[in-house]
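Regression report. Comparing outputs from two consecutive submissions.

Submission 1:
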Amino acid sequence: MIAVIAGTLVAIVLNPQAPAGIATPQFLPWVRSVIFVAFAIGIYANLLSLGLSGWIRSRSLGAVTSTAALISAIIVWTFVRWR
C-alpha cells in the first residue's frame, strides 16, 4: 500500500501542472526510496509467509517451503538491489 501511495506521489509530481512547491528535485529521490523500500518489504514479507506456512502442516513440508523461500530471497536480492 505504501508503494502505491508513493507511486501516486511520483505521478502527481511529474504532472506538468503540479504546483511549484511540490515538484522539487529533492522530493523525487525521497519518493523513489520510499517506493523501493516498501516494495522490498512487501516481497520479503510474502517470502517470509511462504517459508513459515509449511511448518503448520508438517516438519518436512516446513523444510521445503523454508528452502524455497530462502532461494527465492537470494534471487530477489540478486536482481533487486539498492542502486
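Submission 2:
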Amino acid sequence: MPLSYKPNNYYMSKVSLCFFLFLFPFPVFSYIKQEEIPSPEKSFEIRLKSEFFRSYSNYTKSGDLVYLSDNFQKNSFQYILIQPQLSYFYPFKKTYAGFSLFADSYNAKSHSQKSGLELPFKLSVLGGRVQFFQKIQSLFIGFRLTGAYSFHHVKLNPDTKELNLSSPQQTQDNEIIVGDHASYFEPTLSFIFKPSPNFHIYNQNSFRYRSSNLSSLFSLNLGTVFHNSAFSIGSSIDTFFSFLRFDDYTNRPGYRHEHLKKVNAGSFKFYSINPSVISFTLWTGLNFSPFQMTFYVNKDTWGKNYGEGITLGLITKFKWKYSKKIFLEEKRKKKKYLDFNSRNSNYRIQEKKETSYFEEEEDPYSENKNINLELQKELNLLNEEE
C-alpha cells in the first residue's frame, strides 16, 4: 500500500510561495528553460550539459505524493544525462538566427525489492534546432523549431502486458526507460523583455508532439535573469501539462504502471500517462570568456502522473565570436605592423650603405669613428625596441 506524504493544500502553499518569490523584486533565476538573448555577432558554440536526477516518490493521478514502494520497501530511480550540443548563430540586421545539433545519452539505475536494473551510458536521442529572434526596441520575439529522433520505442501488448517486440528498434523487455523512448517535434514561441542592460524577463511557450502514442505536452515558462560580463543569476517557474492529444492508455493505466514497476522501480519520470508538473529552478553562472559555466537546481513542487525529485545540473560552454568589427580591427593591426617593419627595413638598408661609405673612407680619427659606430648601433637597437 503506498505511503502518502501530506495533503494537497500543503503543496499548493509551496507553489504559492514559489510564485511570490518569482514576483518579488530580487535577482532571481533558472536554467532548464532559460531563454538567452542571442549574440549580435557571428559565433560558434560548443555546449556540454551534465544532469543528475534522483526520485523516491511519484505524483499520482489526483496529485497526491506517494513513495515508490513495493511491499512497504522504498524504491528509487535515478539517471545521469550527458548532452553535447553544437550551435552556430548568424545575425541579419535586427534578426538573429541559430542552428543547433544535440544528442542525449543516459545512464540510469532503478532499485526495487524485486530487482535492481542498470542502464549503461547509451545514446537515446539525436536532434536539431532552428531558431529566429526579431528585435523590436527592448523586446525580442523568438520562434524555435526542435525535432528529435529516439533510437528506441516502447509499445505494450494490451493482452499480455508485455512489450510488443515487432520492431527491431523497440526497447528490450527488461531495459530501463529514459527520455520517454519517443521521438518528438516541438515549436516554441518566446518573448524576452530587456528593460535594462543587465536584466531581462522572458516567457516561453511550446507544444511538444510525441510519438509512441504518448500525450502531447504544452509547456509554459516564466523567468528573470540578472547578468553582467562575469556573473549571472536567475530563476524560473516551469510547468507543462498534457494537451489536445492524450495517451492511448488513459483508460487502462494498469498496463503501463506494471511495466514501469518492472523496469523503472515504478517511477513516473518517463513514459507516464498524461503527465503534468510545476517546478521551480535556480541557477547561477560564471563567465571566463570564451568559457561559461552554469550550475542549476530544479525542484518539482506539484504534479500529476509524474516522478517527483530534485535535479542538479552543470553546463559548460565554449563560444567563439566572429564579427566584421573584429576582422577589421585585426586587419588594421596587421597593416600597422607590416608598415612599421617596412620602414625599419628601409632604414637598415640606408644605414648599411652609409656605414659602407664611411668604412671605405680613410679617417685619421679611427678611434672616434669606432665610438660613433657603437653609439649608432645602440641608437638602432633603441629604435628597434620602440
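Expected: both submissions complete independently.
Actual: both completed, but the second showed a warning that disappeared on reload.
Relevant detail on submission 2: The two ends are 85 Å apart (CA to CA).
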